[in-house]
Amino acid sequence: MERNVTMIALFAALIAALSLVPKLDLISGVPISAQSLGVMLAGTVLGKRNGTLAVLLFVAVALAGLPILAGGRGGLGVLAGPTVGYLVGFPVAAFVAGWVVEKWRSVDIGVAAFAGAVLGGIVALSILGTIGMAIVLDKTLLEAAFLALPFVPGDLIKAVIVAAITRSLFAMRPQFVTSRAA
Amino acid sequence: MLTLTSPVETPLHRIPAGIKLAAVCIFTIALFQLEHIRLIAGVTAAVLAVYPLFGRRFARAGLKLLKPLLPFIVIVAAWHWWLAELAAGTAIILRMIAAVALANLVTMTTRLSDIIDTLSRLIPRRGLFGLTPRIFGLSVALMIRFIPTAAEKAERIGLAWKARSARRPGFRIITPVTLSVLDDAAQVSDALKARGGIE
Question: B77: nearest CA in chain A?
Answer without folding.
Answer: A137
